[in-house]
User: Which sequence fits this backbone?
């Protein structure tokens, strides 16, 4: 028994180390956030950090001597509001759409499904200028709603598809029974089907959140000031014409990564089962 | 402390002389909100801390709509032109980019009094003029000169070996041919390099362009046909090719931009570096740089025509034609480029555009005993006055630039000969110029 | 099958439910596409708004077809996609198989596995630009410190290595997506057939080849579909790492479009290119999505 346990532990450690190696390029960014530029960019290289410091974070928040503070607070708030709102809306739209696909039979179903997917496949670079023009005509440039709408469209197709698969594998007889008991279809949905689809919704939500949280190309076009700039766009504040403050950028990166990582860890359980059942079965 | 006192004393003496800037009246615009778009980044920010003073004097508010690096700002302004959303008044601009924007910016000669403009270096104002209109007020200028590690040139052993190998004395180079010799002499890849250059985007174009001029060539003929594939052009490009092929520069230079060259020189692993004045304080700061205290600086060397390289540009401010209160905007940009404000930027090593500031900043550093910065300003003042020239101030420059630099890279990395590369680029550039109706 | 599933053809319910999804896609994607289609038929320049009115027919497209640089970028983009997607798939499969064997502490490992997904593409670009820097980059420094090389490898300059470097960055960022989706597939896998095969004396490779892999294929299509939806995210990476250089060696469609459209301000020409790249992306997605729908039909038995 203990031999078996030892083997399991060994496997875990080996896998963990392998994952760690895979993550090295990212971990290097995290480590750099706590080191001064002069040390990170040294030649010959300094392998063992001589000095760990919070200066890079201090600079971002404006505690440094000359550095003007990066408005990281408003970037964070924008990112949070935009990513959260667009995720919630994408889920609502996705639940409605997924339910329609799973529970109704209608003409052109596959065509609509495929259409949603194909629209999503249009590269952002092809859309950036036209969206910019349209948005500026209706006054959505540099506003949170402007970016939220775009992110909803980025996430809806995947969400619809995942949630569709999930509803399919919930036996229709369950909600039918509820109908017989005198529930309306609306009540049946919320009491029976929605709770059962929770994992799928959570999985779709994580993917949607990560996409919105990290998106750069469109955000850099559609946002301009602290009124709407998100964290990834804020990374560019560390670049000037002649210089890049790499250590500062790494510190900012940590601020971006940590919330996403925590969220991912929290919903990890739902994530796998959501993808499993939503993905293909159904 | 001592430095501050001197600065105060100087400021006072200038005010006493009745300097235009110090005595200026910035007008009164109570309740007005001025919308501006400014270039951002560490070296530009200290100036913006002064904006509060202008607000106090005039009663106006300044709303900074965006603050980002120049390439992003360029894109944003083009989008604004496209969407017709030029609902702001003041924008950061640059002499190399200004011609692209057509007529969105107002002629400042109609907005800013002649006596104010008289305080600026005439050559820089000329560079700020597009199609006869002064579309921008220069804030600070850029031109490159040659930094080098002094101890390497003073080392007796190096001197003896160099003399034996090349037949002349090792000394800070006066010509680019000497730079090439010395770069190869000092190079010891992959740990140490003789020279380096920015190798992509508009940056490598600028380097090629100034070398072309120094070799006696020109970018376009007088009737706007591309002429850079001349013998002079090949010589200019061959300089970069030879250094790269001889591994006298880092293998990564075709992907280098300004941050790479600046950090490279500060890391103490490059003997000579052609770079902007804005880096000088950084290079001489022991906290950032391993070569602090050991830096020499000479004017950019000469090409075979006897002319020095002097690719130059200025960061500037412009006022939109659509601005609803041009008087306030003019007051604002006059304030940002006045004597006191330029002194603040000059103390950081940025090159001023006012004649008086050049003199006073040198005096200030001399009084503070900072010989290095005095040398920096003397060297850069000479090159701004005598060597500086801009790229052709036409809207198509950036576009021509974008067909040229990939070909320059092709020659540098050995995909094409210099002649082939320039011929192909010239053909593409010709198509652009024809499309634009020049020919 | 059931009353609930069967609805009348005139029942508006499914259309009402789908309306928001369709509406948002139409307004954010279809409408802009119409706009850019029009501009691709004009000599539209960003800095000269009036040029948007001048119709020049298919001239931008015709010019494109004789443009060697464009087709080189097109081919390179295709190569980039094929290599990146396949490598991501193989690595993701390996990681998924490995993690699937772990029973204890898996949640932590899965989070670690998804770590690269937390990185914004723009950040990944900067990260690998610094890692692969020839002079101060950690990769060359490590190799030199270990005594493996005594020269600097120009990762971002050499023709093959520069492509390798941007593909490496892309693979690093996106392998996790494959891994998590394939892991989900492995979780869904029934144990019985595997046990039965083992009893019949199949070796692990045979089990994998004939049982696990076929079962996993639909999940592979899902992963491929999802990835093909946003491969263009790689634009941010390439823009920062090499911007298509040096000498156009890493020029992809997306960098070419961005430079033409914004820096050169030739939006008409850029939108013509963008249309071609849109067709490429749509074909990729269409191919995988068809397979996906088919797989779903066989797996789930539902329509």
Assistant:
């Amino acid at each position: 028994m203990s031999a078996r346990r030892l083997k399991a532990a060994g496997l875990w450690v080996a896998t963990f180390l392998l994952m760690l190696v895979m993550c090295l390029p990212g971990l290097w960014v995290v480590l750099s956030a706590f080191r001064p530029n002069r040390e990170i960019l040294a030649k010959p290289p300094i392998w063992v950090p001589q000095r760990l410091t919070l200066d890079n974070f201090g600079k971002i928040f404006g505690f440094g001597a000359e550095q003007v503070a990066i408005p990281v607070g408003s970037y964070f708030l924008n990112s949070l509001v935009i990513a959260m709102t667009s995720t919630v809306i994408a889920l609502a739209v996705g639940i409605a759409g997924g339910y329609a696909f799973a529970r109704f039979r209608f003409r052109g179903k596959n065509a609509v499904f495929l259409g949603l997917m194909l629209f999503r496949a249009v590269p952002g670079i092809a859309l950036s200028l036209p969206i910019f023009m349209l948005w500026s005509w209706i006054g959505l440039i540099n506003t949170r709603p402007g970016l939220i709408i775009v992110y909803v469209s980025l996430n809806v197709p995947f969400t619809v598809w995942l949630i569709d698969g999930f509803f399919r594998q919930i036996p229709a007889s369950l909600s039918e029974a509820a109908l017989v008991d005198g529930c309306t279809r609306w009540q049946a949905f919320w009491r029976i089907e929605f709770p059962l689809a929770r994992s799928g919704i959570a999985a779709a939500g994580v993917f949607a959140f990560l996409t919105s949280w990290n998106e750069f190309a469109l955000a850099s076009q559609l946002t301009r000031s602290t009124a709407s700039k998100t964290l990834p766009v804020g990374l560019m504040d560390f670049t000037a014409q002649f210089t890049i403050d790499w250590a500062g950028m790494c510190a900012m990166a940590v601020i971006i990564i940590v919330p996403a990582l925590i969220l991912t860890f929290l919903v990890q359980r739902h994530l796998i089962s959501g993808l499993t059942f939503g993905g293909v079965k159904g | 402390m001592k430095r501050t006192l001197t600065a105060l004393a100087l400021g006072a003496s200038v005010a006493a002389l009745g300097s235009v800037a110090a005595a200026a009246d910035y007008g009164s615009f109570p309740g007005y909100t001025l919308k501006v778009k400014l270039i951002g980044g560490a070296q530009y920010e200290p100036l913006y801390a002064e904006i509060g003073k202008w607000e106090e004097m005039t009663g106006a508010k300044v709303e900074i709509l965006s603050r980002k690096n120049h390439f992003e700002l360029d894109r944003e302004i083009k989008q604004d032109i496209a969407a017709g959303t030029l609902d702001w008044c003041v924008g950061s601009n640059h002499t190399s980019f200004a011609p692209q924007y057509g007529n969105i910016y107002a002629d400042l000669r109609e907005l800013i009094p002649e006596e104010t403009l008289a305080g600026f270096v005439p050559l820089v104002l000329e560079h700020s003029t597009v199609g006869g209109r002064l579309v921008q007020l220069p804030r600070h200028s850029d031109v490159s000169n040659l930094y080098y590690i002094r101890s390497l040139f003073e080392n007796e052993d190096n001197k003896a070996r160099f003399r034996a190998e090349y037949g002349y004395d090792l000394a800070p180079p006066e010509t680019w041919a000497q730079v090439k010799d010395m770069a190869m002499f000092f190079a010891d890849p992959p740990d140490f390099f003789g020279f380096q250059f920015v190798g992509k985007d508009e940056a490598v174009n600028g380097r090629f362009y100034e070398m072309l001029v120094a070799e006696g060539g020109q970018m376009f003929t007088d009737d706007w046909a591309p002429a850079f594939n001349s013998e002079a052009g090949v010589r200019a490009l061959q300089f970069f090719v030879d250094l790269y092929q001889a591994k006298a520069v880092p293998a990564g230079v075709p992907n280098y931009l300004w941050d790479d060259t600046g950090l490279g020189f500060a890391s103490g692993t490059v003997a000579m570096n052609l770079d902007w004045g804005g880096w000088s304080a950084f290079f001489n700061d022991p906290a950032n740089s391993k070569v602090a205290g050991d830096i020499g600086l000479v004017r950019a060397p000469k090409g075979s025509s006897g002319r020095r390289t002097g690719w130059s540009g200025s960061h500037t401010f412009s006022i939109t034609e659509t601005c609803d209160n041009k008087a306030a905007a003019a007051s604002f940009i006059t304030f940002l480029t006045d004597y006191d404000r330029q002194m603040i930027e000059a103390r950081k090593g940025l090159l001023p555009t006012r004649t008086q500031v050049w003199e006073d900043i040198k005096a200030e550093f001399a009084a503070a005993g900072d010989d290095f910065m005095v040398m920096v300003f003397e060297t850069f003042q000479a090159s701004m006055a005598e060597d500086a020239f801009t790229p052709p101030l036409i809207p198509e420059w950036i576009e021509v630039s974008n067909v040229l630099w990939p070909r320059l890279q092709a020659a540098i990395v050995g995909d094409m000969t210099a002649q082939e590369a320039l011929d192909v680029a010239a053909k593409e550039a010709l198509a652009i110029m024809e499309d634009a109706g020049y020919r | 099958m059931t009353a609930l599933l069967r609805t009348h053809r005139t029942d508006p319910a499914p259309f009402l439910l789908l309306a928001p999804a369709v509406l948002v896609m139409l307004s954010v994607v279809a409408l802009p596409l119409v706009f850019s289609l029009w501009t691709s038929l004009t000599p539209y320049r960003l800095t000269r708004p009036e040029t948007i009115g001048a119709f020049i027919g298919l001239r931008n497209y015709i010019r494109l077809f004789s443009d060697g640089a464009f087709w080189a970028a097109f081919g390179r983009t295709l190569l980039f996609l094929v290599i990146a997607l396949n490598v991501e798939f193989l690595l993701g499969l390996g990681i998924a198989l490995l993690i699937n064997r772990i029973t204890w502490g898996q949640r932590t490992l899965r989070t670690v596995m998804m770590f690269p997904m937390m990185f914004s593409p723009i950040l990944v670009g900067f990260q690998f630009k610094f890692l692969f820097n020839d002079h101060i980059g950690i990769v060359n420094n490590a190799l030199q410190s270990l005594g493996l090389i005594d020269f600097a490898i120009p990762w971002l300059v050499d023709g093959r290595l520069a492509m390798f470097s941007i593909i490496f960055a892309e693979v690093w960022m996106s392998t996790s997506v494959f891994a998590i989706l394939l892991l989900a597939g492995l979780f869904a896998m029934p144990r019985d057939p595997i046990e039965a095969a083992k009893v019949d004396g199949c070796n692990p490779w045979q089990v994998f080849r004939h049982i696990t892999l076929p079962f996993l294929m639909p999940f592979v299509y899902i992963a491929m579909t999802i990835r093909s939806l946003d491969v263009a995210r790689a634009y941010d990476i390439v823009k920062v790492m090499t911007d298509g250089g040096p000498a156009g060696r890493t020029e992809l469609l997306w960098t070419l479009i961005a430079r033409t459209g914004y820096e050169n301000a030739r939006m008409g020409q850029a939108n013509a290119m963008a249309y071609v790249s849109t067709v490429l992306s749509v074909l990729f997605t269409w191919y995988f999505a068809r397979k996906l729908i088919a797989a779903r039909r066989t797996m789930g038995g539902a329509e």
